[in-house]
Amino acid sequence: MTYRTRAPLPTVTLDDVRGAQKMLSGVARSTAMEGSRHLSRLVGSPVHLKCENLQRTGSFKLRGAYVRIAGLLPEERAAGVVAASAGNHAQGVALASSLLGVRSTVFMPVGAPLPKVAATRDYGAEVRLQGQVVDETLAAAEEYARETGAVFIHPFDHPDIIAGQGTVGLEILEQCPEVRTVLVGVGGGGLAAGIAVAVKALRADVRVVGVQAAGAAAYPPSLAAGHPVSIVNPATMADGIKVGRPGDVTFRLVEDLVDDIVTVSEDALSSALLLCLERAKMVVEPAGASPVAALLSEPEAFDGPVVALLSGGNVDPLLMQRILRHGMAAAGRYLSLRLRLTDRPGALATLLGVLSEVDANVLDVSHVRTDPRLGLTEAEVELHLETKGPAHCVEVGGALRDAGYTVIG
User: What angle, 0 to 180 degrees and rounded to 10, lies between the N-to-C axes of helices 190-202 and 248-257?
Assistant: First the structure.
């Protein structure tokens, strides 16, 4: 009887990451690291934000894409490259290809945000919209590679991609040598794997923690099973880490080198994005804000100094609008309530006067007189208010009760 043995997976070393760093000199920026006083007070030790949202193309993806394409043989470059992405990887491949004089074709989902599609085209790629979800788009790109001979550039599961992303880890150690914990968002795992390779080789005492959206967390079941496991219908606003299955190469590196994987809720993601905008003055996409969401969710869980990686800032303005509303609601900045009052002239004006005295901003008001549930002299009012936070919500409720109103919903 003969047995087939699985070919060993390629690995990534510190020398690979250092080689990638030399290759990226003059191409990728060494992005800034900014301290956050608000998060530092919350955690009880220094917290620094590594700002890859300020990288060229708006995310870390340029690093890995450039290293991968630069390493192609001349005949492979002549055949061109192809990629599939909803945004960040698309832009990274497009710019890297243009810088290296390689023809690129990028498949994007039909519903991809228009700003990301336009940016990918502006960086020089031919964009093809195909598939309703990324998995369908990925299949289309792989079919194109088979038909044309173009080299498929995987978004995360390739040693060159991982080595390129690992250069972020080298910069973190250079900029914050006293770091104790590094928090990084995780989708397929290329960024976390690369950072862990670099950081653990130089500072084994530093804790590397991956952060996944709870609705798209493929790593916890995969780590429990000991191999990559697919999850069905991953769902999260953080499209940059919305990946249904870890990569084979990235999984082994994450399993060996990343200390922990934590998950965060959609409320935490939107609150983190709002905090980055208000306190750090940083435009960050939901995936990029996931490390901050982890700090907000469990500030006592991480030893400092902490470096939280803001991995990208490419967010569609319409999505940003919805997320900000969601984040303000999660932070107690909106209050919706329903109450009844006597239907007489001036009653609504009196109610609004009470709200004005406690500085609650009325966003919307609905005044109903004809509902069969109401008494002959009753009216029902539904209010949507903008407040200053949870304490202010309590103050508003107290003012209404003191004025004789009963809130019924």
Answer: 40
The predicted-structure confidence for 22-71, as pLDDT tens digits, reads as follows 999 999 999 999 999 999 999 999 999 999 999 999 999 999 999 999 99
Beta-sheet pairing, 361-368 with 378-386: antiparallel
Phi, psi of 307 (to 5 degrees): -110, 120
- Residue 45 is among the residues annotated as catalytic for this protein: no
**Two tokens, residue 326:** 């969601």
| Catalytic hit among 36, 50, 61, 297 | 61
The one catalytic residue among 59, 104, 290, 311: 311
Report, as ranges of residue numbers, the positions in the chain whose pLDDT lies below 50.
1-5
Range 142-151, long-range pairs (CB < 8 A, 24+ positions): 142/84, 144/82, 144/105, 144/107, 145/82, 148/79, 148/80, 148/82, 149/79, 150/79, 150/80, 150/81, 150/82, 150/105, 151/72, 151/76, 151/79, 151/80, 151/81, 151/82
Q: What is the pTM of this model?
A: 0.84
396 in Cβ contact with 387 (< 8 Å): yes
Does the annotation count 200 as an active-site position?
no
